[in-house]
């Protein structure tokens, strides 16, 4: 088992990564504080792992009272109405201030369970058990929680850190291939923004990742978590540096919002967004053509979209990006690549004509 | 103008208290960071003060873009559905991360606007302009924000501190008498839990408070804010000490929930709850009969209820108190008076038979 620590002074917490971790009750139990646990999961994950996790919490005569709530599966249910079901269950089952919420599922479950934990009784403990590659390498680490607003992704939420993250790599065996590839898009991101060697490793090992080679997946998850943990430790509340984790996300969020939540997976939208960000970076003269094509090639090999869907018009992009969380006093700040592989900037100091050209080159109208 | 600082290291903020503060644009403007402000108010307060506050923000050619959202008035609208109206308006008017939410109104508006500010884009600036005595002496200070769940008060929320609190005592001139008396019940609380001299001052000056003597009101507000600021500085997240601010609130919340939000004002329910807490403290032998009767007398003079409504049965009290935020691992912790005037404890170590006797003595069945 590998342990990656997210260093946040008194809120420091471990990420456990390894095979068979959901067979080790002590790991989970030592992070449960009170007598009550509410497991938050969805209709897809519950039949696969809920019984196992409940058993784990109750193992060795633990006396922990375990309740669960099963939400509908999918980004389109990541809304306030679905969140209320978690609060309803928590109140009905008399969860108290010392209780622990356990997020069992992918990024949507982690984000919603985390926000529910942040807001219930103004904050209770929570633990992440991510079961998708996307959640394991990105969303379960760093404390960003929230739900979508009909007009924009993750507009309502909180920064709220878990007690621990338990990543059992065995859970990836049940993951649909499309979900696997979506997660790989986020892995590619870490290489691009800050870890050239990791990007090169991915170029060499993409086939192994797609074949679900356990060692390759474990390494990719560990290296991704280490990168994210470092960034989050330096800038928890996203004053600046942390924003670089959103490479491709401004375009990507616009795609997700524009085609309706659930049309594309998050990593699919981010992949197309990353290609657009690379295109803009190249137009600005900030990266050379060879880097741009390496990015395109690696994402193509990862079997994720490398362009937005044809329904995304220039106007749609512009309207949705105007309400992005990274807009400040009217200026849209973007994460763009600049310089050698592994370097990026977070800036509003780019030629907006180049942005228009990028939109024109990717959109039919 | 008086200034009371709430000392919370990097989130320290001032409470400005005085007459005519809503005529001083620089006070408010210096705490507005970005270019966008969303004023959150209600249908009762908007006709009285919204234009004035918007004018204040725009005074001296400030270039601040001011938007507003007017919510229905009352505790029964302190719910997630109404909160969504704030988010809708914030998204529609393109509020960004540097924007400021301004709460203009009583405790309900402050709690909802604060929680909206905590959750919008995972946290934006906010400023409190409380216009009721209750909000000025209690709810606008200390960062507790949230909304009600149908099964319990303030079950969903956040600890979130404002940039500043601006208390213009002139706003009390438009306050209905019932609201004034409700606020006085919280003022009485500070004396009981930690400030014997303040309680004695109230015994001498209750008539002045009821007659809205400006100096008496200003002193009561200042002393209340000082007491609250001290407690909050020592225990922001309510690990222990801060809970003592909830004297009478467990019984009071049960009354509010039991008769439906909006039936009684918060301070009215707290007043009855304080009398019940004093009764229980006396039954336990923790305070003497003379203190119990001084409490009853002072609250009677303040024209607030000193017993729960007849519709509150013992069973209702018990069921609702079982989901109180102060229940931990099954035990209900209460704030009770113990010893001389000005002393209290926060404990689950009381004889539950005495609690039953108190409920029997105040409830018809």
Automatic annotation (TrEMBL), chains A, B:
Enzyme class: lyase
Domain of life: Eukaryota
Domain 3-dehydroquinate synthase C-terminal intervals: 183-327
Cofactor(s) demanded: Co(2+); NAD(+)
One example GO MF annotation: metal ion binding
Main subcellular localisation: cytoplasm
Domain 3-dehydroquinate synthase N-terminal per the UniProt entry, residue ranges: 69-180
Example of a GO cellular component annotation carried by this entry: chloroplast
GO BP term, pick one: aromatic amino acid family biosynthetic process
Catalytic activity: 7-phospho-2-dehydro-3-deoxy-D-arabino-heptonate = 3-dehydroquinate + phosphate
Protein EC: 4.2.3.4
UniProt keyword list: Amino-acid biosynthesis, Aromatic amino acid biosynthesis, Cobalt, Cytoplasm, Lyase, Metal-binding, NAD, Nucleotide-binding, Zinc
TM spans (from-to): none
Compartments, as annotated in UniProt: Cytoplasm; Plastid, Chloroplast
Metabolic or biological pathway: Metabolic intermediate biosynthesis; chorismate biosynthesis; chorismate from D-erythrose 4-phosphate and phosphoenolpyruvate: step 2/7
HAMAP family linked to this entry: DHQ_synthase (MF_00110)
Family that this chain belongs to: Belongs to the sugar phosphate cyclases superfamily. Dehydroquinate synthase family.
Function in brief: Catalyzes the second step in the shikimate pathway.
Designated name of the protein: 3-dehydroquinate synthase
């Amino acid at each position: 088992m590998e342990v990656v620590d997210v260093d946040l002074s008194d809120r420091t917490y471990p990420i456990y990564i390894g095979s068979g971790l959901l067979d080790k009750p002590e790991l989970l139990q030592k992070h449960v504080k009170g007598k009550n646990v509410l497991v938050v999961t969805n209709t897809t994950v519950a039949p696969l792992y809920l019984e196992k996790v409940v058993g784990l919490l109750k193992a060795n005569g633990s006396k922990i009272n375990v309740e669960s709530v099963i939400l509908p599966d999918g980004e389109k249910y990541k809304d306030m109405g679905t969140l209320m079901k978690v609060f309803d269950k928590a109140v009905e089952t008399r969860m108290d201030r010392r209780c622990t919420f356990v997020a069992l599922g992918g990024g949507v479950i982690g984000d919603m369970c985390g926000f529910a934990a942040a807001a219930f009784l103004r904050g209770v403990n929570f633990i992440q058990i991510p079961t998708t590659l996307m959640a394991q390498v990105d969303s379960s680490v760093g404390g960003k929680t929230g739900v979508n607003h009909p007009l924009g992704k993750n507009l309502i939420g909180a920064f709220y850190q878990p007690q621990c993250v338990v990543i059992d790599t065995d859970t990836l065996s049940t993951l649909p291939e499309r979900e696997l590839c979506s997660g790989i898009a986020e892995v590619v991101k870490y290489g691009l923004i800050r870890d050239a060697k990791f990007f090169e490793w991915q170029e060499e090992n993409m086939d192994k990742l797609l074949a679900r080679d356990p060692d390759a997946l474990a390494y990719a998850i560990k290296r991704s978590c280490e990168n994210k943990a470092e960034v989050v430790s330096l800038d928890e509340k996203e004053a600046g540096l942390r924003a670089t984790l959103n490479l491709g996300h401004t375009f990507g969020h616009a795609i997700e919002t524009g085609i309706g939540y659930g049309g594309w997976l998050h990593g699919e939208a981010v992949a197309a967004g990353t290609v657009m960000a690379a295109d803009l970076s190249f137009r600005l003269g900030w990266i050379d053509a060879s880097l741009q094509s390496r990015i395109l090639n690696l994402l193509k090999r990862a079997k994720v979209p490398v362009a937005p869907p044809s329904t995304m018009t220039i106007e749609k992009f512009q309207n949705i990006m105007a309400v992005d969380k990274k807009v400040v006093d009217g200026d849209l700040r973007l994460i763009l690549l600049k310089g050698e592989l592994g370097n990026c900037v977070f800036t509003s100091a780019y030629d907006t004509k180049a942005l228009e050209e990028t939109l024109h080159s990717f959109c039919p109208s």
